[in-house]
Amino acid sequence: MVRKVTIIGSGPAGYTAAIYASRANLTPLLLTGVQSGGQLMLTTLVENYPGFVDGVMGPELMEAMRKQAERFGAEMVAEDVTAVDFSRRPFVVRAGDVEYESHTVIIATGASAKLLGLPAEAKLMGRGVSTCATCDGFFFRDQNIMVVGGGDSAIEEALYLARLGRQVEVVHRREELRASKIMQERARKNPKISFIWNSVVHDLDDVEAARVTAVRLRNTKTGEITERPVDGLFVAIGHEPNTTVFAGQIELLPNGYVKVIPGTTQTSVTGVFAAGDVQDSVWRQAVTGGISRRRTPGSV
Ligand code: NAP
User: What domains does the chain contain, in order, with CATH numbers?
Assistant: First the structure.
């Protein structure tokens, strides 16, 4: 059986594609991955997704999107895609032990925030640890915030958080920022932002209390460990698009994101589309993932 539409990925972009495709009678197959739901499954309260006056828990929102797609008949298979062949028609998508043939494919595999890899970081994710200032900054009004990273994302997050927090400390593993000069200048001029150089996060408290209370830093030059009282830790060390499986099959940008024709979701292969964060290294919001059109910074 050759499918009309196969969607790979089950974040906001994947479920939105499934809702629209099933309502258009295209009987889509959605390969959700073994862990479905995408990045919002790692968050707690989401307060900026339109339509939820009092906010909604990330996993609850994703469950609702899933049920909405199922309601219109989208078929879901909880397998990870391990290979694709876009050189022949119909396209072939391998997931688990099965090869699916499909006339069109929508890639919605998203991106993943890079993490520090500490056990406490994973346990406190959504409980004081965050990878998105726009999403979670509001929870740390007038509190002590720490941002890890030295690139444009880290500085952008720090500038955003400085509007909300009491103070923002940027921790960087070197003594020179990678961020663009203009962003650096803005941050240096901001009285709420300070820098801690040559330092990495060694560990964080308090897993038992299920909230962040302090961060222990290790100086990379001296090895000295110092403790800072912190309420929110924002990890901003970059994102990685989930595109490994598509390398060599469609054109990717130098940063690994899927290249689409500007203003569209069309990739370099006719009939293969990309939606959401996998083709958007700029906005990275659930609401824009659902809209899935190409944007340029500054546009609405
Ligand atoms: P990035 O440029 O790759 O920077 C990542 C930062 O995190 C680097 O400073 C890196 O340190 C640090 N880092 C990486 N792994 C680490 C680890 N395990 N522990 C501690 N620190 C770690 O990523 P990005 O800031 O997300 O930016 C990605 C791209 O988007 C860039 O091209 C950037 O210019 C662009 N961007 C632009 C804007 C803007 O213009 N407004 C905003 C956001 C992003 P090192 O420096 O030592 O490698």
Answer: 2-112+239-291 (3.50.50.60), 115-235 (3.50.50.60)
